[in-house]
Predict the structure.
Amino acid sequence: MSKGSLLRTAILVLSAAAAGSACAQDAIKIGMVMPMTGPLAAAGQQVLAGARLYLKQHGDTIDGKKIELIIRDDASSGETGKRLIQELIVNEKVDIVGGGLTAELFPSAGLITETQKPTVIMLSSTTAVVEKSPFFVRTSCTLAQSSAILADWTMKKGLAKAVTLVTEFAPGLEAEATFTNNYKAAGGQIAEAIRVPLRNPDFAPFLQRVKEAGPQALFVFVPSTQAATFAKQFVERGLDKAGITLIGPGDLTDDEALPNMGDAMVGAVTAHFYSAAHASVLNAAFTDAYRKQVKDGANFMAVSGYDGMHAIYEALKKTGGSADGKALIAAMRGMTWESPRGPMSIDRNTGEVVHNIYIRKVEKIGGELRNVEFETFNNVSDPRVAAR
């Protein structure tokens, strides 16, 4: 090959490399680590479906920069998720992290802070997570928000003796602690506190203990992926006919799983930030679009992923497409918008989500079970954060 040919080849190679580098710089990478398999798979799949719906509706380009979504499956394991978050940050050079499980976010907080990677928590509902890094914000919820309000509501209804039954992992323990503290402070009696294992739970023996305790109310938190199993065993043990009011955070009557729970859930009262039956034009459009894309009903996990992408998109618009970590997190904090769930915001000081909490009752409407909102508590902050 002549010197001229070699020179032209070198120029072409350098040009191609420069073009590749420019393309890389024009892409904004969002790395999402979610449980796509394992016992919590349905939750991760719903969050991702909500995020993808937002991308479909709003395009995959902001200020000329391509939005690239990189998905990793933590298989419902915090240890696996921690490793995947590290790989996304170190190897894939992601600009933004979409956060999933509590068990992987806690040990990843140091790396996220060191590398200044804005992390939007779209799944975890444990209060203590957000305070672990100044680069965390949340668009899901905290169980303390709904559990505290539900405790007060239960006492106002004269249900002064309760049993708690929760899954033994961080969100369940937080729900239990918040409900118990508020309930006792209002004069309520906890007859028994029952904890069940996260993996492959058999609720039957625990429900027998509930029946024997004879409470007026049963406060339940189980992951939404296990709610249908709980409902089945609730009926098998005859608790639906025992005169016990079934209450809990919204995971208990998850909109997506509710159709498979049967009429035993009719009358169950939950406190939550979202219902697929929420009466707004925006929510009607969201649920319709979600059903068309996913061939299934929307739920609170889906809207958390949808709103998570909204926070990212709006922050990137504010920074002019810059993925600088400090600029993006500053743009997210203090953000307010109208969501399918209703009005919501991200607290400027803490990065915590602030939204309405609705008291809902399961009713059968047109042959379908629905979470019907009948009381609203506006702009609810996490009570454990507010108390600090």
In short: Residues 1-24 have pLDDT under 50 and may be disordered. DSSP finds twelve helices and 15 strands in the chain.
